[in-house]
Amino acid sequence: MATMRAMSVPARGAKLRMEERPLPEPGRDEVRIRVHACGVCHSDSMTVEGNSPGIDYPRTPGHEVIGVIEALGEGVRGWQTGTRVGVGWSPGACGYCTRCRHGNPFACDNIQGATGVTRDGGYATHMLAHASALARVPAELDPVASAPLLCGGLTTFNALRHCGAGAGELVAIHGVGGLGHLGIQFAARLGLRVVAVNRGRDKEKLARELGASEYIDTTAGDPAAALRALGGARAILATVTDARAMQAIAGGLGVNGTLMVIGAVGALTVDSLELLRKRASVRGWYSGTSVDSEDTLLFSERHDVKSMNELYPLEQAQAAYERMRSGKARFRVVLRMD
Ligand SMILES: [Zn+2]
Ligand SMILES: [Zn+2]
To answer: Between 150 and which of 88, 117, 215, 224 could a Cys-Cys bridge form, CB atoms 3.0 to 4.6 Å apart?
Structure first.
């Protein structure tokens, strides 16, 4: 019997463990993917630490997947075996519910949950995915190096292109880490004036090399005042995982500015008077659908956006996860399967 291997979480809060299982057959509208690489994302903590309700264990995390289609289930149209594909957070969409028909497939009524949370993800040699969750991966992109573009890249690119800022306008990338180092590259290549914001000066040189024209050290003074001194940000892409740090910079928005929240920090306090006065807003941004992933990958290929990664073999997924959680990785952590 053909088998697959997966690094799975056996129970809430338990360490990742290697499992060998029979190779699954794709169900209706599903494909089986032979996984080449899978990024290790901060959001994998939902599965590993179990801080999201309703997860069934054992569960295999991973939502930054690149691989090739190995088998097609019944009813799959438009995809062939051998095609290189990516799978992100989105588990797909039905295409016929009210939300899908209104152009909001990310909130589909019928296909819900998330890859690696409510269904098994890419910390594995193989996985199943709904055909609507697949993104085409350009042949020129390295499958291992590009895996983080399926979440870290998608989230920053998609938030930036919906943040309201046009070419030449000031955008702050708050946090120069796993998300931020991608956000700076996308923002610069989208023609925005990029100011990188981070604690200390360690990452200033890199931020400028990636495309930032300005840099604000949040430990050197009031970061909101520093942004206002530059004219105020048309958008702040808040990638940090600390609500207080986000609150401290929100006042740096300019007129019609938008604080795009992509880091999950729980409750957030903002000064309503500031919002009123500037006609500013606070907006959350879901990462994106498979079509958004495809746009992200194509843009990255054309404009040479690259994720900086530390690579681990699949068997060392626990060490890879801990490295990501330490916050010390430069900048994304990726599992490779072969
Ligand atoms: Zn992610
Ligand atoms: Zn739907």
So the answer is: 88
